[in-house]
Amino acid sequence: MTAVQNMPSRDPGQDAACRSGQLIRERGQHEVFCGLTSIMWLHRKMQDAFFLVVGSRTCAHLIQSAAGVMIFSEPRFATAIMEERDLAGMADMHDELDRVVEELLQRRPDIRMLVLVGSCPSEVIKLDLSRAAERLNRRLAPRHRVLSYSGSGIETTFTQGEDNFLAALVADSGAQPTQAPPASLIIAGCLADVVEDQFGRLFRDLGIADVAFLPSRSSEALPAIGPDTRYILAQPYLGATAAALEARGAKRIDALFPLGEEGTTAWLKAIADSFGVAPALFNRITEAPRQRALSAMAHYRPWLEGRKIFLFPDSQLEVPLARFLYREAGARIVEAGSPYLHREHLAGELALLPDDAALSEGQDVDRQIDRCLAADPDLIVCGMGLANPFEAEGHVTKWSIEFAFTPIQGYEQAGDLAELFARPLMRDVILSGTRRPAPGGAA
Amino acid sequence: MKLSMWTYEGPPHVGAMRIAASMKGVHYVLHAPQGDTYADLLFTMIERRPSRPPVTYTTFQARDLAGSTADIFKTACREAVERYRPDTLLVGASCTAELLQDDPGGLARTLDVGVPVVPLELPSYQKKEHWGGAETFYQIIRTLAGNRERPADIAPNSCNILGPSALGFRNRDDVTEITRLLERNGLDVRVVAPLGATPADIARLPEAAFNIVLYPEIADTAARWLKKTYGMPFTSTVPIGVHATRLFLAEVRALAGLAEMDEGDDGTDRMTWYARSIDSNYLTNKRVFVFGDASHAIAAARIAAEEMGFKVCGLGTYMREFAREVRAAAADLGVEALISDDHLEIERAIIEARPELVLGTQMERHIAKRLRVPCAVISSPVHVQDFPARYSPQMGFEGANVIFDSWVHPLMMGLEEHLLQMFRDDFEFNDDAQASHLHAVSPSASPSASVAAEEEEAAPVPAQGTAEDDMALWTSDAEKELRKVPFFVRGKARRNTELFAESKGIHPITVETLYDAKAHFAR
Ligand code: SF4
Ligand code: SF4
């Protein structure tokens, strides 16, 4: 349900009108993970939370295979796998879930926040997880808090799982009895700890106090939200979260997303302006990191300048990434695909894209592959299922999933972000042995 | 409902995908939500195949549920046939689509796509990956090789190889190895399936004299049906290990009506001599815990006991379908079989068995890593690194050679172990110095950043865990003495001593206790 709300159907023609670039809306096979996958970074971010997917063997296999769970000894997530006899009676299903939760808490008494994650099968049979969470909460609070959200593939793609989780957190923070005074600024969207710390220092230097990050690193430190709270998105896929924050009275600061020097400056500036920070102070504080970002970028620009890049839909980060590639690296964007375009949140980004870049929303992977091959781009940004087949045909690819897992936001990461795109191109040059014309400097 | 942190097997439709991806000219239309497309990367990334698996997903969404998901299925079917022009179409549903009851088989029939359609009914909430693979293989054979006339004059030395599939553990190399071996023995291998087979090849299966079941997990159902329908006998020995390879050859030669072979190998078996050589002396009675799919686990346990001189201290499988066979093999070796797909239970069993080497799957590799026990992978589920670039079969004589290497490497080399003992105070052999060949299987013994990070990631030690956290158990003298034990056996020394102390009610552990325990566990 949530994701349907996330997907306001707007008239695409109206948006396309602002750009002469092509807008392609597609409905066909999606080659995108479902929202369950975002558990992969959420469980690392919030270390006292445990994510219990209520789903099928497929869901369990997905999070295991797709996200390299196998690296860890014991992950902070699991699946309650529904079996045939569960499907017979719904009443028993709730008992079964309670039993599994009990078993889990016995093994992991350190869990502070237990998150029940809905899947396609649990939604199709209409297993009400929010009711289950309430019931469990009554029994387990305050030792453990229980939340629920949907990460199902029929409602969410990949990063939207995070969106639904954050929206659930916001709703829950309203339900918590003891409240600290509301935060003045909330940064919504998972950021790597190192990025969060960098931003934290910049806010401090800019004199902006009471800044809270959503999600916080501990389930206990959830921010209070009130009408005086302003929020800004650090990720472009947070439609439901934004709606939840606004429902609690918070007001959105509109900005580009903090990717690259330009995006980061615009993002910080929007915050600074909103808090009345003097322009001189802003310039003084951001001057040095801006220069660092620019010089780190300059290193990779020769590799990307003039290159044709095709972005398959994956994380919903595609539009800001395309903007970064075009504006800061001088690349040419053939097509920027996104599972879903949140036009309001992306308005600033879309305005900066070149007119000749095609935009696509949704996916029919076969047709998209045809378009991509016809355009013969220099670099294809795509999901894990497509990358090796493209490579085998002689194309250079970049796994899009890394943008969701790697720290890429902020000044200090601008060079890293550029390098993520440049590295496959460098590798191609090394391996093909053809010293192609280009790239000075970086090697 | 079953609590699961890791699964040994995927859902049954992943088994079906493995069969589809093994074959040529086959396409699978899978009624499934978008997230289920993750399965593609098992092939493109883990197995590192250069092409996408031949699967089209319908990718239905919540908003489609109110309308007709059946129409979405039909469209996907029609477009897939148009685009990929397969010789045979497989159709089926994943777990979510199964709940919608759209009946992909029935829908595909009404479409009349012009090619044979194999409808797959794979109950997702009951069955698992290997079952799905076996069932799919069987259904394909029934559809394409049913109602055939068996030729009158079939050469008695003609055979098919059944069972190798995409994502199977070293299957590609096994096929090469076994085919070579069979050909050297005068056999004529007609069809290998499903790996590399076309639908036309499948139709030719009844034209051979008998079948070789390389992987019963995939081929058993099909081989039984071919026997019932066409009277084709099939082999029962899986040729993993030197003994089993010999048995296999004898079995095959008998089926082909060939004379018994004189003993003596063909010069490719090095494993037998290596195991006998003096450098292998230190392998004597090393305790080995074996867990995996049924065939690999049974074979590994036999090799361990009979060909390497290890002591098997545990044997199990996650495949209930083959519990009987594994139980029998375990009984032969004097242990009780562990039939479970709950990795926590397997972890407990490993801790209890105190092995010095674990032979298992990707899961056991992690359990072993956590317990600081050397480990080699012998079976799926596996990781990208278990699809090596080099030729590394498990079957036949060369397979036995490969197995010897890959099991012995994680252990210390015999001579080196003594050197380390002798020179343990030498700066190059101190605690932080890593054995040159150990890094691949065991994390650094020094508290390096990566280990620290990993341990932070690891769960709090379970109740029956290693108890390494409880320092107060040890007097500081005993702790110091323990530090003198070389790091690669220190974990074991600690566990043994604590086990011993607990059983005797000793607290705290003193230097005395340490040596008492050492004497107690000495063999
Ligand atoms: S990238 Fe792929 S192969 Fe590598 S660890 Fe992750 S899931 Fe496994
Ligand atoms: S798409 Fe649905 S059924 Fe498939 S893994 Fe995701 S939540 Fe589970």
TrEMBL record, chain A:
Record-annotated Nitrogenase/oxidoreductase component domain positions: 40-425
Cofactor: [4Fe-4S] cluster
EC number: 1.3.7.7
Broad class of enzyme this protein falls into: oxidoreductase
UniProt keyword terms in alphabetical order: 4Fe-4S, ATP-binding, Bacteriochlorophyll biosynthesis, Chlorophyll biosynthesis, Iron, Iron-sulfur, Metal-binding, Nucleotide-binding, Oxidoreductase, Photosynthesis
Gene Ontology annotations of biological process type: light-independent bacteriochlorophyll biosynthetic process; photosynthesis, dark reaction
InterPro entries: LIPOR_BchN/ChlN (IPR050293), Nase/OxRdtase_comp1 (IPR000510), Protochl_reductN (IPR005970)
Binding-site positions, [4Fe-4S] cluster: C34, C59, C120
Functional pathway: Porphyrin-containing compound metabolism; bacteriochlorophyll biosynthesis (light-independent)
Species name: Oceanibaculum indicum P24
Protein name listed in UniProt: Light-independent protochlorophyllide reductase subunit N
Domain of life of the organism encoding this protein: Bacteria
Co-factor note (free text): Binds 1 [4Fe-4S] cluster per heterodimer. The cluster is bound at the heterodimer interface by residues from both subunits.
SUPFAM superfamilies: Helical backbone' metal receptor (SSF53807)
GO molecular function, one term: 4 iron, 4 sulfur cluster binding
Reactions mediated catalytically: chlorophyllide a + oxidized 2[4Fe-4S]-[ferredoxin] + 2 ADP + 2 phosphate = protochlorophyllide a + reduced 2[4Fe-4S]-[ferredoxin] + 2 ATP + 2 H2O
Species classification: Bacteria, Pseudomonadati, Pseudomonadota, Alphaproteobacteria, Rhodospirillales
Membership in a protein family: Belongs to the BchN/ChlN family.
Quaternary structure and partners: Protochlorophyllide reductase is composed of three subunits; BchL, BchN and BchB. Forms a heterotetramer of two BchB and two BchN subunits.
Keyword presence, Signal: no
UniProtKB/TrEMBL annotation, chain B:
Residues binding [4Fe-4S] cluster, per UniProt: D36
NCBIfam families: DPOR_BchB
Catalytic reaction annotation: chlorophyllide a + oxidized 2[4Fe-4S]-[ferredoxin] + 2 ADP + 2 phosphate = protochlorophyllide a + reduced 2[4Fe-4S]-[ferredoxin] + 2 ATP + 2 H2O
Entry annotation: catalytic residues: D279
Free-text cofactor note: Binds 1 [4Fe-4S] cluster per heterodimer. The cluster is bound at the heterodimer interface by residues from both subunits.
Protein name as annotated: Light-independent protochlorophyllide reductase subunit B
Domain Nitrogenase/oxidoreductase component: residue ranges: 12-411
Domain of life assignment: Bacteria
Gene name linked to the record: bchB
Function: Component of the dark-operative protochlorophyllide reductase (DPOR) that uses Mg-ATP and reduced ferredoxin to reduce ring D of protochlorophyllide (Pchlide) to form chlorophyllide a (Chlide). This reaction is light-independent. The NB-protein (BchN-BchB) is the catalytic component of the complex.
Record note on quaternary structure: Protochlorophyllide reductase is composed of three subunits; BchL, BchN and BchB. Forms a heterotetramer of two BchB and two BchN subunits.
